[in-house]
Automatic annotation (TrEMBL):
Metal-responsive transcriptional repressor for the cmt operon. Binding of cadmium or lead causes the repressor to dissociate from the DNA. Keywords: Cadmium, DNA-binding, Metal-binding, Transcription, Transcription regulation. This is HTH-type transcriptional regulator CmtR. GO terms for biological process: response to cadmium ion; response to lead ion. Coiled coil: none annotated. It comes from Halostreptopolyspora alba. One of its GO terms (molecular function) is lead ion binding. Homodimer. InterPro entries: ArsR-like_HTH, HTH_ArsR_DNA-bd_dom, HTH_Metal-responsive_Reg, WH-like_DNA-bd_sf, WH_DNA-bd_sf. The keyword Transcription applies. Residues 4-100 form the HTH arsR-type domain.
Length: 111
């Protein structure tokens, strides 16, 4: 049985990952298909260095895994349910209020 602290930690990790638009784009891309970093960087239009930093964050959060494929690594979601969670969260947020914009926390308390 999970404890409340464990649930909160898991949701905080997911929220931290989703707090950055590039990490959101990476998660959505990997939801569709596993990918090699070079392909992901090209698809997202970002440098490999920047992508590497975001992938490290997502790995640390436990949301993606690197799968060795020969001398290269392919990235994929750590669990297929994360892809479903992303879809569910996106549609739920859009269903609640699609015309809202969350202000950055440094400007004002968010939501």
């Amino acid at each position: 049985m999970l404890t409340i602290a464990t649930d909160i930690d898991a949701l905080a990790r997911f929220g931290r990952a989703l707090a950055d638009p590039i990490r959101c784009r990476i998660l959505l891309a990997l939801r569709d298909n596993p990918a090699h970093p070079a392909d992901l960087a090209a698809t997202l239009g970002i440098s490999r260095t920047r992508l590497s930093n975001h992938l490290a964050c997502l790995r640390d959060c436990g949301l993606v895994v690197a799968v060795p494929v020969g001398r290269r690594s392919r990235y994929e979601l750590a669990d297929a349910r994360l892809g479903h969670a992303l879809d569910d969260l996106r549609t739920a947020v859009l269903a609640v209020e699609s015309d809202r914009t969350c202000v950055d926390s440094h400007e004002k308390d968010c939501c």
